[in-house]
Predict the 3D structure of the following.
Amino acid sequence: MWDIVYNNSPFPYEVTFVLVALVQILILMLPLMGAVAYYTLAERKVIGFMQLRIGPNRVGFFGLGQPLADAFKLMFKEIVIPSNSNAFLFVIAPILSLGPALAAWAVIPFADGWVVSDINAGLLYILAMTSIGVYGVIIAGWASNSKYAFLGAMRSAAQIIAYEIAMGFTLVGVLMMANSLNLGDIVNGQAGGIWNWYFLPLFPLFIIYFISGVAETNRAPFDVAEGESEIVAGFHIEYSGMLFSTFFLAEYANMILIGMLATLMFMGGWLSPFQGTPLEAMFAFVPAIVWLFAKLSIFLLLFLWFRATFPRYRYDQIMRLGWKVFIPITLVWIVIVGIAKLMLTA
Amino acid sequence: MSAAVNYVKSLFLWELLKGMRLTGRFFFERKICIQYPEEKTPMSHRFRGQHALRRYANGEERCIACKLCEATCPALAITIELGEREDGTRRTTRYDIDLTKCIFCGYCEESCPVDSIVETPIFEYHGEQRGDLLMTKEKLLAVGDKMEQQLAEDRAKDAAYR
């Protein structure tokens, strides 16, 4: 798609490569930031609706200006740096939290070949990036020099370790099915109809993946790191203004990322759900990316639905769920998948 | 047996799905929000809001400076000083209600033998300086003059129970 640019560029290849990458990053990041902004509005609306309220509706039609108003408000707020904090780490922590959350998007394909960086170890890269994000939380908790922030950071660290393992095992299941770590290959491996999507053979892994994803992003009902009713606001208690909103951007970018990964790995990504049925030709006009976003939005709705429904898990229950339920189930299912693959190839 | 059933139920997230069905149903239910400045809830004629001093139809102020309201006020928000007017009647020279102290219990209104001090249904008022919420006699009488028609109607509605 970018061959024309490379062939007609007056610059050397390396410079062109950097320029093209920058343009691709812009094309990816601007809509993503917009999606994050409007996801916050969607969250307030959906949770409001489920609580018989109507949510924000004052700024613009249906409250559509609310994210912009929030952003402007946060920009003009003072950034308070506590006098006993480590100022450098305090400022760098939100950036460490947001950076990996955005960097992970580099390997996400939006349709066949629509990807910034088509690397073979995509899944591994995603796993690394989502894990690095926790450093932002831990550093924020430590640098704030506040007991609540520190408690939140400790909880977040323990929780991410517990659920990272279960999540890693679910990804092992996916890569066993797809024989590839490249996300584009994983989606193409599911081609041929809804019954080929990996959520059917990997159903327990699919459920565990999504629940672990909710835990990874510190979202309700696993939001003990924030725990506003116990440790006030957890790791970001001392943060204000744009530093605070950077944490929020990271959280929502991570949520969209987890939903996107669930779509790509289990729900057939950009593939039409009518493949292999008589309806396929009727829906052939729908672009692949529309299917991708339709499936993604279901997962994003689930994030909000969970938050509106479930009370926060107790801390020991979270640990129990992660170590004593998810990890054994995923291990057993990986063995089952392995045996099934052996039998089918034999 | 029931332990096994519970185990299977929890493994398949049965209760959680039931919870999500409930919130999912509420998502589509009619919303009960009142859009405040445009829409308002109906208000009782006994609503106790900002205070007012009333007058008789001939324009004479009702208050006879009996000080019952001052005595009964649990928040000590009322300050009354009295004196004799030129025509020899007993009148207040000062009647202050500090709305920052007032708890809007309505005892002053109940204690008043001549229905002079009353609480109006006005609840959307504010002060921009410290003194603004200290209601003097003039301010109270002004509120009373403005609201007299509604005050009379509300008291007529409630007359059977007083």
Observations:
- Strands of chain B lie at 51-53, 78-84, 90-98, 117-119, 134-135.
